[in-house]
Amino acid sequence: MIRALQIALAVFLCLTGTVIGQDQANLPHYDITADLDPETGALSVEVTITGVEGGPLALRRADWLTIENVAVGGRAHAFTPQQRGFIVPLSGAGPHDVVISARGTIPALASGGRRNGAGSAVSGAEGTFLSGYSSWFPFSGSAPFSYRLSVSAPAGTKAVSPGKILQETETAESYTAVFASEKAFEAPSLFAGPYEISERDVGGIRVRTYFPADLAGFSGDYLDAAGRYLTRFSAEIGPYPYEDFHIVSSPLPVGLAFVNLTYIGEMIVPLPFMKGRSLAHEVLHNWWGNGVYVDYPSGNWSEGLTTFMADYGLAKDQGSEAAKTMRLRWLRDYAALPESRDARVRDFIGKEHQAAQIIGYNKAAFLFHMLEMEIGQKSFAKGLRKFWSDYTFETASWSDIRRVFEVVADRDLSAFFDQWLDRVGAPELTLGDVQTEQTGDDFLTTVTVRQSPPAYSLLVLMDLEKGSGTERFLRRLDGPEAVFEFRTGEPVKSVHIDPDYDLFRRLLTGETMPIMRDITLAPDVAMLSLHDDDSLSEQALGLANSLMDRGSTAEIVAEAPNLTQLGSLPLIVVGEPAELAEFAKDNAISPVPEKLEAGALTAWAAQTPARLPVLFIAADGAEALRSARRSLRHYGRQSYVVLGGGKAPQRGIWPVASSPLMKPMTK
């Protein structure tokens, strides 16, 4: 989901004080009438703004939109053009009614469905996307406000916007729909295209898909899934806060979230993951983010809570192993994050890059998992419902979340939130001595557990394996070291601490194997091409940079480096399989396993003896390197992947032999 522009505007409004707390009856109101022809891009729009206070009214507009007339109080009124907008001078205290007429031609939709950006305005026969951030109608930017949007388009075109559907009219010549919102914080976006509408009632909520004819067959599955998520989250949190939920396909390769609407690229509509965790995530944001607003200057909590309840919640539905796998994946991602890119959870505002996602989505979601362990499932569930009821359509911060859970748990949680929100990093646990001895009719087992400084207050799960089975214990570790004692009726064979990865911590050597993100998350990477052909080397460098996280770069090195001279700089090595095998042998790096099948391109992560991350890429030629630019970057969580050869990708993570947090007992 792309929410960067929404977040950026929200932060700006908070910091500049233009998010105002009027009663709904006193909010500025926008009455927008739009006439749209997607194929030609022609747009005419009339906006009536009521409740405008005195003084100059500054309005934004797109550079392709021409202001034709401005009227105040029913009379023509002068305005002053500005860069990216115009100013309407208003005398007297107000309130004033301002009417603006504008016309323009929307920029053409890029051929091939290229991404135009979340703040775009584009139009073509395949569809129209008018982002609220594109200033497709004159808008002041002040929030909150109310609006009514009426849009008309030629027959065969359907249009949709965030807000409640008030009216729809369809004739042989045209289609008109009217939408409204009583309290909005961002300008309404507008979507149109040759859609077929499918609709279902889910407990009084109108759920719709807007898909073109060739995708209409997927509507049933999407309506089923959306209905399940709306029902689920309503039961877990409280009533869905809007009357409608729309799933709209896009000719652009995007995934965008709006109030009561999600806009997804046509190419991903058929993919199973979109109907699963991705759609659940979008639905849940109507509670967290669009139902309870985020106090962005104090940190964005909504992505972590949404990830915990949607993505992780669906994983838990599949069983304890699936939930454990997701937690371990989050910890692997964090292990791949360079120390220089680590950050506090409280400082997360939006997903600017993958490094931010690891903190603001994964670590924050882990916080809620550990909070549930701290206070218990019943108190946690009660806290979610109370947070919703206390802050519906209000702005909330991390501090507000803490206070709510303190009330339901009847305990001080400041130390818990402080250590996970305000510290950079994570604890590292180690298992010290483990001993057992018989004391009369039972057995005394002692276990020493240590953590790296600064010490966290941690609830640590411990498994004690006995002849009759495994018994699980929960103990608190507050300092750098603790010795725990257990009495059992039979000897303990082994001890395993945090066996299911229930703590957010740094994984130890031996708990995780190399993955491609070890390289792609690094701020700077060296790339070595073993190809003699310069054109192949250029393609290899292009592929390397396509893999890197935003803000990171790969630079080619002229010749085979002495690995000791690279320092801590990760390395990408591209070449023929035989050349890569020789390079790996010369530098004491494990070669690619023989079990991997042949393919057009094979990539695998490894480490030098000094634990320097290395990514090997073997490709058949220039075309394999070029075609992998779009697909290979999606496998960052894998240790290896084989692409091409007419088969589904072969991928996986190197197996871990044994955990350093599990030890057999000594007497």
From TrEMBL:
SUPFAM superfamilies membership: Metalloproteases ('zincins'), catalytic domain
Signal peptide: 1-21
Superkingdom of origin organism: Bacteria
Database matches in InterPro entries: M1_LTA4H, Peptidase_M1_dom, Peptidase_M4/M1_CTD_sf
Domain Peptidase M1 membrane alanine aminopeptidase: 279-420
GO molecular function, one term: metallopeptidase activity
Keywords: Plasmid, Signal
Gene3D superfamilies tied to this protein: Neutral Protease Domain 2 (1.10.390.10)
Name this polypeptide is given: Peptidase M1 membrane alanine aminopeptidase domain-containing protein
Taxonomic classification: Bacteria, Pseudomonadati, Pseudomonadota, Alphaproteobacteria, Hyphomicrobiales
